[in-house]
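B., you asked whether I could sanity-check this one before it goes into the benchmark set. Here's the sequence:
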Amino acid sequence: MNYYRVHSRDNDTCFYYDKNEQVQLEYCPTCGLLTNREKAREQSIAIYRKKGKYLMSDTWDGETIVSERFVEIYNKYNLKGLDFIPLPKSPHYFLLRCNNIVRYDYDYNTNLYMKDKCPTCNQWYEICPQGILNIRMEDEAIMEADTFYVSDIIIGEKVARRRILYATDNIPSYFKIEKGRIFFDKIERVR
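And here's what the prediction gave me:
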């Protein structure tokens, strides 16, 4: 089974960071990292306004927003693994959620830069993979075609933190047929 890292352009907005008046953000007293990301995400669904037109785009704080056209392609080809949460202040756009978590292969991907794990909140200040983005072979073995997956590892630094989104065989070709401008980088495992 082939799989691909999925990514798009940044849309130059934050999903919850620039909404301090409306979203209750809580920070670790030791390292200053956000500790209530899930709660902040839930609060921001009602107030987020998109910027620009796009099929799929990432916010600076690690959330992925997709258009109605993305959802149409997803449904047309009976793809699996994603949920779409409507954004009331951004009609025809959705917050993307992935249901299938796969484990990052820490043993194989030895060039993983991890900086300063906080003893209070247990988060890494920064995680940066240096090239290879493989997942564990046991997880590769159970992946299905036409399905999206997300990594258990959260990469990035203080603000721009996100999970790696993966797509399996056939998904890149469907988006190519539909002229959907999303980037798919094939993940190669050197054996």
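One thing to flag: The chain is about 15% helix and 30% strand. Otherwise nothing jumped out at me.
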